[in-house]
Amino acid sequence: MFAAGCRELQAGSLCSPENHMTTRWTRKDLLGLRELSAEEINFVLETADAFKQVGTREIKKVPALRGKTLVNFFVEPSTRTRTSFELAAFRLSADVINISATTSSLTKGETLKDTARNLEALHADILVLRHSSAGAPQFLANRLKASVINAGDGAHEHPTQALLDLYTIREHRGKIAGLHVAIIGDILFSRVARSNIFGLLKLGARVTLVGPSTLVPREFEKLGVEVSYKIDDVLPKADVVNLLRIQHERQRREYFPGLGEYIRLFGLTKERAKLLKPDCLIMHPGPINRGVEIDSEVADGLQSVILDQVTNGLAVRMAVLYLCGGIAA
Amino acid sequence: MFAARCRELPASSLCSPDMSALIIRNGRVIDPANKREEIADLYIANGRIVGSKHEIRDPKSEIEQIDAKGLIVAPGLIDMHVHLREPGFSHKETIESGERAAAAGGFTTVVCMPNTSPAADSPSTIAWIKDRAEDVACVNVMPTGAISKNLAGEELAPIGSLAQAGVVAITDDGHCIQNHEVMRRAVEYARMVGVPVLDHCQDYNLVGNGVVHEGYWSTLLGLPGWPAAGEEAIVMRNILLAELCDHPIHCQHLTTAGSVQLLREARARGVKITGEVCPHHIALTEEAIQNFDTNYKVNPPLRSQTDVDALLEGIADGTLSILCSDHAPHADFEKEVEFDAAPFGIIGLETELGLFLDLLVHKYGKIDIARLIEMYTIEPARLLKIGAGTLSIGARADVTLIDPELEWKVGVDEFESASRNCPFDGWKLKGRAVRTIVGGKTVWKL
Q: On chain A, which terminus has fewer CB atoms closer than 10 Å, C or N?
C-alpha cells in the first residue's frame, strides 16, 4: 500500500518508505513534540514537503491509507483542527468518522477508556483525539493498539499545530536554527505555546515569551526560553511573532483586568507592527480575535502568513497520519 | 470525656482479650513512653502487659512463646490518618479490608476520617462505624467526626455529641473550612468538649482546580498547578487560631518547606500546633507525574525536592512529629481515567512503615528507629489523648514486632486492602513489621 502511495507521490523522501519507517520513524502515536528528537521533527517536515506537492495537483488524493479507518474523536469543540485532519485523511484515502463530545457516550457516563476500546473493537486504525484534559492522548496510547494522534490536550500539547508552525517558518525563512521567535499572549493555558516551545528549542531557535505576568509565569524560563513583559522591547528583535488567541471567554477575570488594558499592553496594533523587522513573519494559530491580540490590518498585511499556516496544516497532518498509520499497520 | 473514652477502649477493640498468656522473648523492647530500650522479654496475660512471668496467673493455660531475637518489640503502631471508606464507599475499601491492611502494615490502631457517605457528622454514624468495627475489624478503629455538617464548612456539626459518641478528634479532612470565623468557633467549641482539631490545609481560592504542584512540571505539562501557598495560608491561619483559642490544631499531611518553617516558629513560641507527614511526600517528588499516571495524583500534591528536603529536616528536628499514611483507597475504574478527572489519593497502610524505615532511618539517617516509633505511638496518642502506644504494665497488649533489616519488595497484588492504587509496586524496601498483636492476640504475621 505504501509502495503504491509512493509511486503516486513521486517524491524523493517517500520513495523507499520501508527504509525510512524503520530508521527514521518508529512511533505509532504522536503525543507531543517534547518526546520527539530534532531528527524526527525534521523528518515529519520533509515528509510534509512531499504531501504539500500533492495538494497542488489536479487530483489531490493518494491511496496511502486506503482501507484504513480514522476516527476524529473531539471531546472538546474544534472546527479548524478537526476539518484539517478530516481533509488530510480524505486525501490519504482513509475512511473517516467524526465523533464529538455531544454525540459520544461520554455524556452518558461512559469512561474515555471504554469509549476508545469500543472504537478499537470496530477496528479503528487511527484515533485523532482532542480533549480538555492534559495527558488524555497518552492515556489512550498506552492502552490501544491503534495510533493515537494528539489534536490538542488541555494546556499540554498540540503537536500538529506546532509542526505546521515550524513548517511555515522553515518555508518562508529556509531554516529554524538561529531565528528569534516571540510567542505572545496567553502562554499559561496554551498547548500551542508549549508544543511550539519544545519544537523551536529542539531545532535551535531562540524563544521569547511575552504576555501578562499572570499568563506568562517566570517558571517558563526553566524550560529554556526567555520571558518578557515588554512587547515593545521584543518586537524589533523578532524574526517571527506568533500571536496566541486571548481566550477571554474562558479566562477567569483575575488573570488580567480587561481586554482594553490587554490591547494597550500586548496587542499587536498597527503602530506596534512598525517596530517589526521588515521580514518578520506574523503568525497566529486561529481563530483570530481581530482588534484584540492583533489589529485587523496587521492580520491581513504582507508579513502575515496566517493562511499559509492553514494550508501547511493539511500537508503536515497528512505526513503525521501517513507516518503513524504506517507504524500501526 | 477523655476518661470515658479511655474506659471504652478495651470494649471497642474487636478482638476479645486473649485469656491465654504470651511471652515475647529476646526482642529489643523499645517503649518510648517509658523511655525504655533494652533486650528483654515481654510478658502478656489476659490481653494486657504484665511485669513478669510470675504474673501470668493461670499456669495451667498454655503459654505461647515468640522468639523475637533480632526484632524490635514496639508498642502497637497508630496511624492517625486513614480512610476506611465505610459507610458509603465499600467498593473502595471496607472497615474489614482496611483493618486487615492495617494489621499487615504493623498497625494496631487506626484513626479513620469522616468523609464517608453519609459524612461522619452525627453520633449515629459514629455508632455505626464503631459497631461495624467491633464486628469485623481485627485492630482498634477510632473514628473522627466532622467539624462541619456534611463537611460543607458552613455550620458546625454536633461536636459535643460526636465526642460523647466516641470520636477522638474532629476534622473535615478532604475538605477545609474556608471561613476563618467558622473555624475559630469550631476550635473554641472543641476546646470545651476536649477534642483536638485536625485540619486538611487547603485554601480553595489559591488552589483553584489545581491537581499537581505548581512548579516546573505543572508548567511543562500544562496541568493546573496547586501552589505551596495554598497550604501555607491555611497553616498560618491554624497557627493564629490555635494561639487565639489556646487549643491544639493538628495540620494534616503537610508538604511544603513554608509549612515546616511556619510550624517551627510557632512551636518554638509554644503554640499548640502539630503536623504530620505521609511517606509519599518524602519518597516522591512532582517529577513522578510526568507520565500522567494517576497513582501519583494525591492531595496535597507531590512537591519539589526543596520541599522534600525541608520535610526531612522538619522530621529530624521534631517540627513534624507524627507519621501517617493518608490511606486513600480508590477502585481501579475510578483511577483509570483522565488525570484531571481522577480522584486524589493512594493507599498506604501496607507500605508506610517500610517506606519510613527505609528512607528516614536507613537511607537518610534523619531519625533513629526509637524516634520513628515515637512518631507512630506516643506522639499521636498524646495528641488524641488515647491510652494506646505504650508497653506500660497494665496497658492493653497491642504490640508490633518489626524487623528493621528485612529487605522486601512491595507487591500490590499481595495487599490486604481492597484497592490497588499504590505507586510503590515493585519498590525494594528495608524494614517492615513482621507480626501485629492486638490485645495479646496475633492478628497478622508475615
A: C
Percentage of chain B with pLDDT > 90?
92
Average pLDDT over residues A74-84: 91
Dist CA A123 CA A140 (whole Å): 15
Residues 221-240 of B with CB under 8 A from A: 221-224
Other beta carbons within 10 angstroms of residue A207's beta carbon come to 24
In the structure, how many helices (H) and strands (E) does chain A have? 13, 9
C-beta neighbour count of B333 within 10 angstroms? 11
> Mind listing the pLDDT tens digit for each residue in B372-393?
999 999 999 999 999 999 999 9
Contact status, residue B135 vs residue B425, Cβ threshold 8 Å? no
Taking alpha carbons only, the member of A130, A155, A29, A17 closest to residue A79 is A130
- Rounded distance, CA B81 to CA A50, Å? 61
Percent with pLDDT over 90 in chain A: 76
B307 is catalytic: no
Q: Do A220 and B219 touch (CB under 8 A)?
A: yes
Q: Name the residue type at position B13.
A: S
Closest-CA residue of chain B to A141: B291
Query: Which grid coordinates are listed for B309?
Result: 528536603
Asked if A243 and A294 touch (Cβ cutoff 8 Å), the reply is: yes
Using CA atoms in the order B190, B193, B196, B198, what is the torsion angle rounded to 10 degrees? -40
Q: What is the mean pLDDT of residues B252-271?
A: 98
pTM over 0.90: yes
Q: Measured between alpha carbons, how far is B166 from B250 in angstroms, rounded to an integer?
A: 19
Paired strand residues for A241? A182, A282
Chain A CB contacts of B217 under 8 Å are none
Euclidean distance between CA atoms B23 and B46, whole angstroms: 12
**Angle formed at CA B160 by CA B154 and CA B166, multiple of 5 degrees:** 115
Q: Which of B326, B358, B398, B403 is catalytic?
A: B326
C-alpha cell read off for A182: 516571540
Is B39 near chain A, with CB under 8 Å? no
Which residue spans within B46-130 are E strands per DSSP?
48-50, 63-67, 72-75, 77-82, 107-112
**Mean per-residue pLDDT of chain A:** 90
Cβ <8 Å between A135 and B333: no
Report the alpha-carbon distance of residue A164 to residue A320 in Å, rounded: 11
Task: Report yes or no for ipTM above 0.85.
Answer: yes
In the prediction, which pLDDT does B399 show?
Answer: 98
Residue type, B183: M
Length of chain B: 446
- Going by C-alpha positions, the residue among A189, A225, A244, A132 that lies closest to residue B222 is A189
Cell of B424: 510503590
What is the tens place of the pLDDT at every residue in A258-315?
Answer: 888 999 999 999 999 999 999 999 999 999 999 999 999 999 999 999 999 999 999 9
Strand ranges inside B279-391, DSSP E: 322-323
How far, CA to CA in Å, does A226 sit from each of B13, B265, B288, B313? Answer: 62, 37, 26, 34
Helix, coil or strand: residue B320:
coil
Cβ(A225)–Cβ(A197) under 8 Å?
yes
Cell of B152: 460543607
